[in-house]
Design a protein that fits this description.
2 helices; single chain; alpha+beta; about 140 residues; five-stranded antiparallel sheet; 5 strands
Amino acid sequence: MNVEQNTVRGTVRELLDGIAVVEVEQGGCGRCHEKGGCGGQQLTQMFCSGPKRYRVVNDADVRVGDRVTIAVPAGSIRKTANLAYILPLTAAIVGALIGMPLAGDPGAMTGAVAGLVIAFLYVRHRAARRVDDPAFHPHIVSHSS
């Protein structure tokens, strides 16, 4: 199975028990304006300052100071952001809309909280299923000293 991947360049800054801490040159995948891009770089620049560091399995035997290229499956950042942000917001709104006709403002508040709790539990369940799936983790595709 050949999966399209987005790549970003970075420098290994630290090694921790088989994990390489990589400082990347830019936030996101760098394909914000291309098909499949999520716009993550603009969000990163707006809300985060300073260098971005990622933990990546050191299966390429890199050393501190090595330049590396990290790959993630195309669209995975967008899907994760939708799951973590859009789903809970939508669930809270739907919960409030269901609760409002049943019990007025208290029903709307209760429905919104219930929607958030349900969304949180669903996101946790989905994340737990993907934590051991290497297809969803960034990985080193090339390096140079």
